[in-house]
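Field reference: sequence -> structure
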Amino acid sequence: MNRDTWLTQQVRLLEAAFHRVQAEQMAEIALANPALTVEAVGFHRYQGRPFGALLSPWFLNLILMPGEGEDWEQLPERSEQHWALPAGVYLFHVCRAAGIGTFQACSIMSPVERVEDQDSFRMVAEAALRAVCRPSGHSRRAVLTGRFDDEGR
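Structure field:
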């Protein structure tokens, strides 16, 4: 299987797993925004691992999945891992989901009840990915909130 096919397959498995969660566990939860659906955005390889944003009716997370041949099953669920991205070091939590196994998530936005539509949500995810994938002298808070002090931090 070529590298692009493998990456596409991993992203499809991620989306399918969270579509199941949406249908089976979150459909009746008030926290879920009915105007939104599960969507993987901007996935690419980062240090050989699938990395991108996952939109759902209840969150926007950055997602890092194990690379080909990597086994993360030994990582304790809910444990914390720090990953150095071009814009800085970010805290990810180890998660597990049926159909995809172990992955890591960094929360960007939750809840998402004020997001009006999927297109707007996708634009927020794309902006977040651009922000963390580009070297920056700004703090993580400034990058994520768009609020900078007089010195640009």
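Note: The domain at 3-145 is CATH 3.30.1460.40 (Yope Regulator; Chain: A,).
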